[in-house]
Amino acid sequence: MSALQVRDFPADLHERLRERARRDHRSVSQEATIAISEFLARHPDAHETYRDFSCDESIAEQRRRLFAEIDAMPVIDIPDDFPTPEQIIRELRDGR
Fold it and tell me: Looking at the domain assignment, is residue 91 inside a domain?
């Protein structure tokens, strides 16, 4: 896959893209690719072929559903003496 770097990208446009990516549970890169693809699809004078991202919408929907399930999970009270993630990792490393 090719890479694209955009110089002097307007900060307000980047913020809008970032917000849309967050809303759709995508990376900014994924959101930019989809936005460009949608733009090219709407303009008949765009003669270059582009990838159809309609299948990626189902991935976004799966992510939305997964995040909704996670949000619906009950909050668990963790005991005060429960080890921190750092302590667990250290114990696993020391056990090697």
Answer: no
Q: pLDDT digit of tens for each residue in the chain (96 aa)?
A: 788 888 888 888 999 999 999 999 999 999 999 998 888 888 767 555 544 555 556 777 888 888 999 899 888 888 889 999 999 999 999 988
Alpha helix stretches (DSSP H) within the chain: 11-23, 28-42, 54-72, 85-94
| Strand, coil or helix: 64 | helix
CA 26-29-17 angle, to 5 degrees, is 75
User: Which two structure tokens, joined as six digits, stand for 56?
Assistant: 């990626």
Please give the Cα distance from 66 to 47 (Å, whole number). Answer: 37
Going from the C-alpha of 26 to that of each of 33, 34, 61, 74, the distances in angstroms are: 11, 10, 11, 25
| Domain count of the fold of the chain | 1
Name the token pair of 32: 């930019």
Q: Which single residue is written with the structure tokens 């699809």?
A: 41
